Amino acid sequence: MYSSLSKENPSLATEKDRSLFNILRGFEEFMLNPEGIIISSNLEVINITGYEEWEVMGNHIAIFYTPEDRQQEKPKADLKTAKKQGQLLVNDWRVKKRNARFWAKMKITSLTDQDGTHSGFRVVLKDSTHKALYNHRVKRIKDEYLNLFNNAYTGIFKFRMNDLRVLLLNEKAVEILGKDESADISFQEFFVEEGRCTRLIEHLIAHEKVEGFEFQIKTSSREQRWVSIGCRFFAEQGFVEGILIDVSESKKQLLELQKLNHELDQFIYHASHDLRSPLTTILGVVNLIHLDEPSPIIKNYAQLIAERVHHLDGLLKDLVSITYNNKSEPKAELLHVETEVRNILKEFHHQYNTVQAFLTISGEVEFVTDAVRFRTIMRNLVSNALKYHNPAVASFMKVTIQADEKLLSLTIEDNGLGIEQDYLDKIFRMFFRATVQAKGTGLGLFITKAMIDKLGGHIAVSSRPMHGSTFLVELPALDINQ
Ligand code: ADP
Question: How confident is the model at residue 184 (pLDDT cuts 50, 70, 90)?
Fold first, then answer.
């Protein structure tokens, strides 16, 4: 053990301290004479190399070098450099006793006597194999991650929440957004509308994540581009990380489709309106025929014309309702529910006076909803309950309404012809008619459902043929301040 060293040379007290420190850290330490021969070591305490102290004493430090290094005289060269520079640090493969290799951290320090003459070397060896392997693995994972990150099909981004500074963009994100993060930019700069970015941030603060959030991005060309992002706000770390995809093509197609839809709606709306006035004229002429006391045959023809015109008029009215529902947003109004429903019941009373109508209203009498849509929904459901009554029984229709500040529940029950089970899920489709027993366009329930959807409510039906049907509607109250 070279603890004797400091006895030989008391001035090496600091050397002793350092040696102790090396022992504690699991290093092997060797003292060499100026020729590189091992004259002392700490091998009794630690054993990286597998040698006993007596085995290494008197050997050249080269015994720890690989045969290749020895052949190239690396040991000598290292000592020479250490002597010249005072110290040399190398990370390289070294060999243990039975030739096992290990990744060593080797520090060679040149030592001098008090009078300044070179007295030898201290060599400290550390086995860093585990660390090297670990670093190697970390590097591989990092390389793979980087590869994945940069070659990903989707864009990946990261920005700081407090100042929106972009921290990271992968190659795909740079390609989509047209800028890279090195430009010291704010995430907001990618947005055409600043407000949209504010909405994103507010959403992230409230919910910590967002999916399918679309916004139009600023481009240097006149071309319009959109991206869709999904990201998460890591509140503790203060950053937002996520992916982005270019949805410009589908967005353009969608906008085009919306435009066409709008044009089609406009066309149907205007055409239906315009077609209704000649119908009114025809009905007027039919009335004139009746006034002229026509023959029974002419009277019959006039009757048939009037029926077809009424049907056509009903169809046009329905088409107007559909386009109205598509193009206009719900308008919140305070309705007196009972008055509204009674008025609608009155409209049909004279036509179906054999059906007994009951109305039960509980809870609030006033409710905030869209008047036009509420009336259309009521009219369609009431007229169906009356139209499809069963003439063979004492018919009734029961309307029950329960409303509070938030919700209106409406039930319309009849004991009419009912609907076949197989048709129940089809009756809300456009132009679907489950019977030919009464006249109709097959649009009433389609419009009813579309309007209920627009008001954020829902509709359900239960029915048994020849027993009757019950329609249940729930409507959430609209916000009067909107
Ligand atoms: P229309 O009444 O013009 O045929 P709707 O869309 O209002 O069209 O209704 C679709 C179909 O649903 C009707 O053809 C009818 O067969 C059935 N239906 C709707 N309401 C009732 C009801 N209360 N009783 C029986 N059948 C009904």
Answer: confident
- Any atom of ligand 1 within 6 Å of the Cβ of 451: no
Domain positions in the chain: 2-128, 150-246, 252-325, 330-476
- Encode pLDDT of 202-260 as tens digits: 999 999 999 999 999 998 888 889 999 999 999 999 999 999 999 999 999 999 998 99
The values of phi and psi at residue 157, to 5°, are: -140, 160
**Token digits for 425?**
């899920």
Decide whether any atom of ligand 1 lies within 6 Å of the 414 Cβ: yes
Q: Evaluate if pTM is beyond 0.70.
A: no
| pLDDT tens sequence across 113-143 | 988 899 999 999 998 888 888 888 999 999 9
Atom 12 of ligand 1 has which residue's CA nearest to it?
A: 427
Third-level CATH fold of 2-128:
Beta-Lactamase (3.30.450)
Does the domain at 150-246 match CATH 1.10.3720.10? Answer given as no
418 touches ligand 1 (CB under 6 Å): yes
Encoded tokens for 3: 């603890």
**Concatenated DSSP letters for 48-65?**
SS---HHHHTTSBGGGGS
Tell me which fold the domain 330-476 belongs to: Heat Shock Protein 90 (3.30.565)
- Whether ligand 1 lies within 6 angstroms of the CB of 417 is answered as yes
Mean pLDDT value across residues 304-318: 90
